[in-house]
TrEMBL record:
It is an enzyme of class 5 (isomerase). GO terms for molecular function: chorismate mutase activity; transferase activity. GO terms for biological process: chorismate metabolic process. Keywords: Transferase. Transmembrane segments: none annotated. It comes from Duncaniella freteri. Its EC number is 5.4.99.5. This is chorismate mutase. The lineage of its organism: Bacteria, Pseudomonadati, Bacteroidota, Bacteroidia, Bacteroidales. The chain holds residues 1 to 264 of 359 of the full protein.
Length: 264
């Protein structure tokens, strides 16, 4: 992976620190737009929302699906933010590209699955679009599997690649929802210094109280950005409610972080 290009949307490079925020899940049009308006006021430039949700057990909210992509379009029109979502199979990629999603990310359960990764790489190759893709670490602490997921995309011609560190599953009670095991993302960066690395303190910590300190730790280690879940009414969120914060709280957290290079 020698020719990685900087993350860019419509030829505009995403400046460091890259801050991405939005709800775990798109739930309703109003929730998406209210959250996005708050984030735009806080200066966020890239919005996230899960449209298809990989839930651990059946019976939970599994995502709003394609109708939510139209809400993301409204976010773009109204706020000027760029929008991103998670894709896990061919149908997701096709729908996201059709609706003009600006940036895709691959979830931790998908990056652990070589068949799914190859399918996504193939459909992106066929589409021939220069879309940036962020690959979350696999749920299990397997650096080669993470790198393999990146290589499948790279071999399909995707050059605007980045990674998201979201921690690793462990069994039993933990402070963290997903253990950070920082040496794994740091080793990936050592091997591939041109791949931007973004920290997801929301899924590492699993609790909103841990977001600020995990974010600062990541920045102190030279991470290139943060992806943080936010919701207009976090306690009522349909997924990951304990780790979501309001756009206003996000603004306060960002104001208090020490950025090594450029401030937000
Ligand atoms: C998410 O970003 O909401 C998500 C499902 O994350 P992960 O793949 O890291 O579990
Ligand atoms: Mn989530």
């Amino acid at each position: 992976m020698e020719n990685i290009l900087p993350l860019a949307i419509d030829s505009v490079e995403l400046n460091r620190p890259i801050i991405i925020s939005g709800p775990c899940s798109a739930e309703t049009e109003e929730q998406v737009l209210t959250t996005a308006r708050g984030l735009a006021r806080a200066g966020i430039k890239v919005f996230r929302a899960g449209i298809w949700k990989p839930r651990t057990k059946p019976g939970g909210f599994e995502g709003i699906g394609v109708p939510g992509l139209a809400w993301l379009n409204k976010v773009k029109e109204e706020t000027g933010m760029k929008v991103s979502t998670e894709v896990a199979n061919r149908g997701h990629v096709e729908a996201a590209l059709e609706y003009g999603v600006d940036l895709l990310w691959i979830g931790a359960r998908t990056s652990a699955n070589p068949f799914a990764m190859q399918e996504i790489a193939d459909v992106l190759k066929d589409a021939g679009k220069d879309i940036p893709v962020l690959v979350k670490n696999p749920v299990n602490p397997d650096l080669d599997l993470w790198i393999g997921a990146l290589e499948r995309l790279y071999n399909a011609g995707i050059r605007r690649l980045g990674v998201i560190h979201r921690g690793f599953s462990t069994y039993g009670p933990q402070i963290y929802r997903n253990h950070p095991q920082w040496r794994i993302p740091l080793e990936l960066r050592r091997r591939f210094p041109s791949i931007p690395i973004i920290c997801d303190p929301s899924h590492i910590g699993g609790k909103r109280e841990l977001i600020a300190s995990l974010s600062q730790q990541a920045l102190d280690m030279g991470f290139d950005g943060l992806i943080i879940e936010s919701h207009c009414d976090p306690d009522c969120a349909w997924s990951d409610r304990n780790q979501q914060i309001t756009p206003e709280v996000l603004g306060v957290i960002l104001d208090n972080l020490v950025f090594r290079d450029a401030p937000v």
